[in-house]
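Morning. Coffee machine broken again, so started the prediction first thing and wrote up yesterday's gels while waiting. Chain of 155 residues, entered below exactly as on the submission form.
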Amino acid sequence: MDWTDFRAAAPGLAALAEERFGAYRQHVLATLRGDGSPRTSGLEVRFVGGRLWLGLMPGSRKAADLRRDPRFTLQANPGDGTGMGGGDVRVGGRAFEVGDGPAKAAYVEEVEPPQPFHLFRTELTEVVRTCVEDDTYLVAQVWKPGEPVRALRRT
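Came back before lunch.
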């Protein structure tokens, strides 16, 4: 499932997620180190051609992590303060490196990243938005491929 598939399956949640990722430039990527422990790193993400792309510096540890184990979680920057305006969004999935070719060329044309760089396409396994509703409920909207969005509410 790529971002286009997610947008078709859950357009409202996809729009909220894109808005959250678009509100700030830097976000947090969690990958797995060789020993299985988590590594968190800042990065910029882009939506290009219906996909969520991860562009990484050459030789970065997070690129090595993703090459070894493609599982990741991406946390949208929550913004200033504690208001969570728009909610808190995270995306889980797998990321696979893209070599030179048409997809990378289209990304370079659109984004104009510093060269050289690693480019990873993402496949989504989960998108979660957490927000406060009516100053009463903590609401988690959860989407997984092949399932409708479900909302979990807690007081």
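The helical segments are 3-9, 11-23, 61-68, 102-111. Going to sketch it on the whiteboard this afternoon.
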